[in-house]
Amino acid sequence: MTHILAIDQGTTSSRAIVFDAGLRPVASAQKEFPQHFPASGWVEHDPSDLWVSVAGVARAAVEKAGLHAGDIAAIGITNQRETTLIWDRRTGKPLHRAIVWQDRRTAGLCDRLKAEGHEPVIAARTGLLLDPYFSGTKLGWLLDNIDGARDRAKRGELAFGTVDSWLIWNLTGGRVHATDATNAARTLLYNIVENRWDAEICALLDIPMALLPEVRDCAGDYGTTRADLFGREIPILGVAGDQQAATVGQACFAPGMMKSTYGTGCFALLNTGEKMVASKNRLLSTIAYRLDGRTTYALEGSIFIAGAVVQWLRDGLKIIRHAAETQPLAEAADPAQELLLVPAFTGLGAPYWRPECRGAVFGLTRNSGPAEFARAALESVGFQTRDLLEAMRADWPDAAQGVLRVDGGMAASDWTMQFLADILGAPVDRPRVTETTALGAGYLAGLGAGLCPSPEEFARDWALERRFEPIMAEAVREARYARWQRAVQATIAAAG
Ligand SMILES: Nc1ncnc2c1ncn2[C@@H]1O[C@H](COP(=O)(O)OP(=O)(O)O)[C@@H](O)[C@H]1O
Ligand SMILES: O=P(O)(O)OC[C@H](O)CO
């Protein structure tokens, strides 16, 4: 048994990668699945699409690698976080579509809880804020809106889970109802200081605790797969939310190390060591990973629109056909024009947390065209990351010294990464392996199986592909960032 199977269940697609014992990718498979938008601001996934796509890509990746189940020592799971599911423990049938992390339907409930003054206590215990992003209010909505669900939940008939738990349940044939500490940390129901479900917060949200999964370490025993899935049972030995798995995959094991993943959104995590740091600047505190019962914490900045702004250029404005076309366009943009885009398409995330905001463009002239829009779109990703870094520097002064490790689809854009280094005034490091999320899950499973080396040794193997050094003059950098900050304030003011 020489290989590891990593499953990465993301917001728009499911991926599986087979790694060899040296954590080199050997084969992979990917499948997109439908998104459902039943009302404005609502986003849902069909639970069976999640499970069926995962089972399909997992089998396909093993087959493509020319391997058999007997060659796979362990499975690691990583997943889109916060997305909320509820199912019947007896039949395994979901009671509703999954409510996706992007879904804003519980904004009213969050406002009410904030007005009642609950946010400080919730933040101190969970590290999170009262935003519809997290699972707790989504689960409350499901219990309020599915006939008889709360009573059935009280009787212990139902199970709640984030996507990891749903996959573990299905992989094990309903034998294991568990989650890992990083996914639990995104629910709004988990006390990350004491490492337990928080009974008082559950009571506040009227969530029966009989619904909740057992919380385990990131490298731990999550049971074995049903024998019929792969031809024999395979142990599941690693689980982490995707941004935490990327933190592990980027080997950000020392306090002060930071990674930023540029996919649909952007999520920056700063390792803060074994003590939870409470943010004074509207960042989230979260669990980076829990190994052998020891928790390592992180500060997180979450931006909802990063690569999605490039998708908007392609699908909305239709000024590009492929994401990579943004680079030549940005290079060709008129340097005399100062088009600035605040891509608050679904509100602003960290550090503003203004769900009511919508996007804005500043500095339009009659000469503004596709090239200027492409440049403004790519630059918006850099400006938003600077906002996060400013908040991190204020919370944790060491963050200022750090190099930023980047990954995700948009990290492929050299132009964007150079602008990022320029506007941050800090080096940006892109690793050789950019599939860091799957790598992190694979590493955790390999650790569980005793196949992979210690975190220190794994960190030594992290290999740089390219470093982007800041070259923009300090005065230009600061003037441009100040203009961005004014644009954000104007965007917030316009939302009323
Ligand atoms: N060369 C590129 N330049 C700019 N953006 C890119 C480039 N390649 C991919 N992207 C963006 O990266 C995102 C895909 O990254 P990925 O990590 O696969 O995202 P996710 O896991 O959220 O689906 C898309 O939004 C796409 O627009
Ligand atoms: O699936 P991704 O890569 O868009 O990541 C989603 C995040 O986990 C949401 O918090």
From TrEMBL:
Carbohydrate kinase FGGY N-terminal domain segment(s): 4-249
Alphabetical list of HAMAP family matching this protein: Glycerol_kin
Gene3D superfamilies (UniProt xref): 3.30.420.40
Role: Key enzyme in the regulation of glycerol uptake and metabolism. Catalyzes the phosphorylation of glycerol to yield sn-glycerol 3-phosphate.
Sequence positions that bind glycerol: R81, E82, Y133, D242, Q243
Keyword Cell membrane tagged: no
InterPro entries per record: ATPase_NBD, Carb_kinase_FGGY, Carb_kinase_FGGY_CS, FGGY_C, FGGY_N, Glycerol_kin
Record: residues binding ADP: T11, R15, T264, G307, G409
GO molecular function: glycerol kinase activity
Binding residue positions for ATP: T11, T12, S13, T264, G307, Q311, G409
Positions that bind sn-glycerol 3-phosphate: T11, R81, E82, Y133, D242
Domain of life: Bacteria
Annotated Carbohydrate kinase FGGY C-terminal domain residues: 259-447
Activity regulation behaviour: Inhibited by fructose 1,6-bisphosphate (FBP).
Keyword Transmembrane helix appears in the UniProt entry: no
EC nos: 2.7.1.30
SUPFAM superfamilies: Actin-like ATPase domain (SSF53067)
Keywords, ordered alphabetically: ATP-binding, Glycerol metabolism, Kinase, Nucleotide-binding, Transferase
Record-given protein name: Glycerol kinase
Catalytic activity: glycerol + ATP = sn-glycerol 3-phosphate + ADP + H(+)
Family note: Belongs to the FGGY kinase family.
Record pathway: Polyol metabolism; glycerol degradation via glycerol kinase pathway; sn-glycerol 3-phosphate from glycerol: step 1/1
Gene: glpK
Coiled coil: none
CDD domains from the UniProt entry: FGGY_EcGK_like
